[in-house]
Design a protein that fits this description.
With 273 residues, this protein is an alpha/beta fold. The chain has 2 domains: 106 residues, Ribosomal protein L30/S12 (60s Ribosomal Protein L30, Chain: A), CATH 3.30.1330; 151 residues, Alpha/beta knot. The protein has 11 helices and 11 strands. A 6-stranded parallel beta sheet has the order 8-7-6-10-9-11, with helices on both faces. Strands 1-4-3-5-2 form a 5-stranded mixed beta sheet. Strand 7, helix 8 and strand 8 form a beta-alpha-beta unit. Helix 7 runs parallel beside helix 8 and helix 7 runs parallel beside helix 11. The longest helix is centred in the last third of the chain and has 22 residues. The model has no long low-confidence stretch (mean pLDDT 91).
């Protein structure tokens, strides 16, 4: 492990920039905090570039699991890319009052320039502004068996720390495409053989709609729903039945219902085949 005391260390300066969306976008990298999230990224096959360790953690003694974790990281990147930081520079990097003792720089997962998988199930986030909501939807999509997540311009950055924590590792195991236009979403989804559905307040009953096979499911902005350009090009608008007097579900809850309705239908089809 290499000890760094200067705030001007090039690796540290580059990593600090990843707290902002601009830095992540320019470099194609992101910062993950904590042993669990870092291990999830490694297990998903993401490329580790640098790992930072709080020297205060060493002062209190590392548990056996932490030592094994660092040995794994060092074997991947070499000792010069395992950086020990004093308390002040580490807090500046972590950006929290009680930071976890490990932070790592990773390459984003592939998908931005790749064609969608044929017959893939795709979740599209249309101008979802809250990164916690966006991350929660990604987590549910992964659990429901969706392979890809796309975002329309105006959606929160999925690689922000808040979104990554909410996704709980799910983001690392999905193909990610960001900043698409409405036209790009529809063209790419149809090229992959997916039917395009938008969630809405009125439309055909989701429980009476066949959702097996390739599906592109669009979830809209928390306040205004799916934008008109997308809704008009969808194969159908899907509505979730609700009791009289209920205004709406929030975006993350509606997404969870729709994602698991697809999984429910496919599970039934598999068990009755």
């Amino acid at each position: 492990m290499k000890a760094v005391t200067s705030r001007d260390n090039p690796l540290l300066k580059s990593a600090r920039k990843l707290r902002g969306a601009k830095g992540r976008g320019e470099t194609g990298t992101f910062l993950a905090d904590g042993r669990k999230l870092i291990a999830e990224a490694l297990d998903a096959g993401l490329v580790l570039e640098t790992i930072f360790v709080s020297e205060s953690a060493f002062a209190h003694g590392l548990a056996a699991a932490d030592r094994a974790f660092l040995e794994r990281a060092e074997a991947l990147v070499g000792p010069d890319r395992v950086i020990g930081l004093g308390e002040r520079p580490y807090r500046e990097l972590a950006g929290t009052e009680t930071p976890q003792p490990f932070a790592a720089v990773f390459r984003k997962s592939a998908g931005a320039d790749a064609a969608p998988f044929e017959g893939a199930s795709i979740l599209v986030l249309d101008r979802i502004g809250d990164p916690g909501n966006a991350g929660a939807m990604v987590r549910t999509a992964r659990a429901a068996g969706f392979a890809e997540v796309w975002t329309v311009k105006g959606t929160a950055d999925l690689w922000s720390d808040k979104a990554i924590r909410a996704a709980a590792g799910g983001l690392f195991r999905m193909r990610v495409r960001e900043g698409l236009s409405a036209e790009q979403v529809v063209v790419a989804a149809r090229a992959a053989g997916a039917r395009v559905y938008a969630l809405g307040m009125s439309g055909q009953d989701i429980y009476e709609t066949k959702l097996r096979g390739g599906v592109c499911l669009i979830v809209g902005n928390e306040g205004s729903g799916v934008q008109a350009d997308l809704a008009e090009q969808a194969d159908a608008i899907l509505a979730i039945p609700m009791a009289d007097g209920t205004e709406s579900l929030n975006a993350a809850a509606a997404a969870a219902v729709a994602l698991y309705e697809k999984r429910r239908q496919e599970t039934i089809a598999e068990t009755t085949a």
